[in-house]
Each structure stands twice: as C-alpha cells, then as structure tokens.
Amino acid sequence: MKKTLLASALAAVIFVPTVSAIEIYKDDKNTVAIGGWMDARIINTQGETNVMNGSSRINFAFNRDMGNDWQTFTKFEWAVNPFGTSEIVYGSDSKISYENDEFFTNRLGYVGLSHDKYGSLAIGKQWSLWYLDVVGATNLVNTWDGNASGTYTYNKGDGSVNGTGRGDNTVQYRNSIGDFGFGLQVQLKHDEATLGADGGLDGTNNGPFEGLRINADSIERIEFNQTIGGSVTYAATDKLTLAAGFNLGEFEATQRSGEEISETDSIYGLSMTWGGFEQPGFYASVNINQNEFHDTDNIGRIMPDAVGLESLFTYKFDNGLKPIFGYNYLEAGDDYEARYNDGKFKRQFILVGLHYVWDDQTMLYLEGRKDMSDFNELNDTPDEDDGVAIGIRYYL
Fold it and tell me: Are 259 and 252 in contact (CB under 8 A)?
C-alpha cells in the first residue's frame, strides 16, 4: 500500500535514512538513533591525485511519543574531517570540497513537533524544502553533483545564506492532503558583512559572502535578510513523484565604486522522480530551474539570470551492482553577458559511475566526469575538468 506523503515527509524530517542509522535506544516513549558515514576516496582531476574526505558525517536523532498522535523530535549532525585538506580545483566553488581545519563542524541542528493530522513544524538549521522536495533526488552521486540545481550558492558551502541548502535560522512547516504534500519555510535572520580588499569579511578570510561580486567591482558591503520558500509534491503512483518549488530573498549591496544595488534572489523549479535510489530496479530523476541573482559563476560574480538542469539515472541489479549516468547543465542568460561583457558561462558535464552495494552499510564506487563546459574567455575564470574517483563509503 502506498505510503502517505505526510509519513514520507516526517520520515525525512525526523529520522536519518535507514541505510545510515542504527537505533541505539528505545522505550515506550523515546527513540534514539545514531547515523552518518565515513567516506574515503582517491580522486584524479586537474592533473593531480589526492585522497579526499567524502563528506563524512555523524548524527544523532531523537524522537519522543507525546501521546494523542503528537511527537517531538530533534537532530544534530556534524561534518567530520578525518583526512585533512585538499587544494584540487574542479567545480563550481573551484575546489573539490571545502574542509574546515576543525575535526567537527556543524551541519544540522533543529527541533520540532509533528502530528498525524496537523503536520510538522521544525525550527533550526535544516535541509530546505527546495532540496528535500524538488532537487535532492539528483544529488545522490558521491563525487560530482549538486552544482546546477541552485542548492549550494553564494558561499558555495551548504546553501545556508539564502535557504536553498542547509538553511540557517529556518522555520519549516509540512503537511499533506491525500496524495498531495506541501510545505512552507522562512528564514528569520540578518546577515550583514563588510568585505576587505581580499574579498574576506572585514579583511579576514572568512564569511558567507567571501569573494562575492556583482559587477566588475567587488562588493564592499552586503546585507541579506529573511527568505521564504515553498514546495508542493504529488505522488502520482507508487513510483512516480512530481514536485514544484520556489525560494525568494532580498539583498542589498554596496560596490567599491559606491553603486547601491538591491535585487531579488529568486529560484523556481520542477522535478520528476521515478522509483527509489536504494531500491532494486530502475531509478530516474530530473529537475529544472529558472533563477535570478541566485547563483554565481566560477569567480564569484552573481548571475542576473540562469537556467539549470540536473538528471540522474540508475539501475540496481540483484547482485548489488548499480551503474549510474547523469547530466548537469547550468547556463547564464543574456543579462549576464551584457552585464560583464566577457563572454558566456555554461557549466555542462556528464557523469558515469558504478556503485557496488556490498550490503546495506557498505558501498564501493567508481565515478567519472566528462566536462563540456564553455566559460568566459576574456577573464581568469577557473576551468573545470574531467576527473575520476574511486572510493569506499562505510555507513553507521
């Protein structure tokens, strides 16, 4: 029997996925689970070969039955950096991944309550509706993915600034009616920064707006406040899910030239997903988005308009082998070329891979990327490149 959308939504909000969680305590009222994974990979790209950390993390999820169909829940998740840092350049943020020098850094932290009829409400740092409902179903490749969907923008870290990734200070409500699910979220925050000559916050090398640029001049001051987002999903069949969503924010900036800028950061998108990524058989997901002042090029300049597309296709055989194919595309529009006057920006690549799901807690993988991008020829835009990675992921 088809699961209700509310049950699926609450499972995504309250619990870590079954494949990466172990129940460590349970009584008549409380449940505690520990989850995450350790991922080590060897990557060759940009003429270098390095050992890399594959977004290793650990999390704790708590759920409490309050009676009368009410539950309360909370979750904490930290990124783990066991392998050190790397300087390999490859993608939208010009690095394979940003690794903080600290062993643990915060990824998620939220608390909420839910009811079978009234839905769920969560407050804190959490995955956005944009990610969970609209584009996350293509962000499942271990090495190269997620940089055309509008999820990880501005700081190129976790999408926290404008609430399309792991949003900071987020309030999120979800519910369903029959086969339709819906959600609404807001970020209640105030981000303001003055950037030094090197692009860092107050002259230092940090801050969510580091290196951000709009015109030829870099930004001297930027202010980004509340955002709002929403999503609608429809379980058309047991396998087919359709979704639509949006995210809006306002920012104001002052260029070093003195020019004052006020723009709306917006993204709208649709997606279609067939099957389950961890289930046997065929899986496919495609999403497309239209965005304005939402994403940046490879040297940190905001794109006034762009179109993005991500797709992922897999087939999981009974023996655990799972071939993977994906196509990512992000192209800036005419306003971008007119504003910067130095050519086009088109990120485009295909990815192929083979996962071997040894058991539910252990995966070996081989993934490769063929780059077909077309970047600005009149500036120093870092090139992206082909690459290959081999790794092992050990789920907790």
Answer: no
Encode pLDDT of 15-60 as tens digits: 333 456 899 999 999 999 999 999 999 999 888 888 888 889 999 9
Cα separation, 10 vs 7, in Å, equals 5
According to CATH, the topology of domain 5-91+118-395 is Porin (2.40.160)
Enter the tokens of residue 123. Answer: 């407050």
Range 100-108, long-range pairs (CB < 8 A, 24+ positions): 104/78, 104/79, 104/80, 105/78, 105/79, 105/81, 106/77, 106/78, 106/79, 107/57, 107/59, 107/77, 107/78, 107/79, 107/158, 107/166, 108/59, 108/75, 108/76, 108/77, 108/166
Residue closest to 123 by CA, chosen among 75, 172, 186: 172
Q: Where are the domains of the chain?
A: 5-91+118-395
Token code pair at residue 114: 């839910």
CA 59-169-241 angle, to 5 degrees, is: 70
> Residue 365, SS3?
strand
Q: Report which secondary-structure segment, H or E, holds 326.
A: strand 321-332
CB atoms within 10 A of CB 159: 25
Q: Which residue has the tokens 């509340």?
A: 226
Mean pLDDT confidence for 260-276: 94
DSSP 136: G
Q: How many CB atoms lie within 10 A of CB 346?
A: 15
